[in-house]
Write a structure and sequence with these properties.
With 199 residues, the chain is an alpha/beta fold. It has a single domain, classed as Glycerol-3-phosphate (1)-acyltransferase (3-Layer(aba) Sandwich), CATH 3.40.1130.10. Helices cover 36% and strands 16% of the residues. The protein has a seven-stranded mixed β-sheet with strand order 1-7-6-2-5-3-4, with helices on both faces. It is globular.
Amino acid sequence: MMKNKLYTAAYPFVWAFMRIFHPWRSKGAEQLPEGGAVLCGNHTTLGDPLYVVCAMGRRRQTHVMAKAEIMTWPFLGWLLKTVGVIGIKRGKADVAAIKECMRVLKKDEKLLLFPEGTRVKEGMTMEAHTGAAMFATRTGMPIVPIYIQPKKKLFRRTAVIFGQPYHPEFAGRKPTPEDYQRIADDLMVRIRKLGGERE
């Protein structure tokens, strides 16, 4: 299980900032597995990873996938890398980042990613990338769908809803590219359905 000392040290400061300015309301976090899992949420704002991290609680740490560009920013890039953020180059097969994600999951740690690959405005849809499907089927880890309320207001609570963990199914010994896409599409359906449980 992941126990990153800097993550632990920084968490109370992030938690306090978010609790004051961007409070959240968590539902279903008790369903999160104790060990490794592929955590997948919808993505509408830059702060979505922070909402999920805070809603999970300090005891449940996770690695977060982020675009590689922010990992090159002075100090912030170093800080993110040190707390376990994994930078991935978009638009190409980033073999090093993929191997790092696989390594994290095989160590029975959690990985948070956003299947849409970028921020998507409410009401719009984008075909899901297949990374989550690949990571889950290759490592045997469950997928956890997460719905993050798209509309966020300063000082108002944002709903973060964790769905039931599940293992994606596929026919044959190994999943095909078509299987990956089907799993990815089904995942996004599960995430959107959670939006109906906000009340």
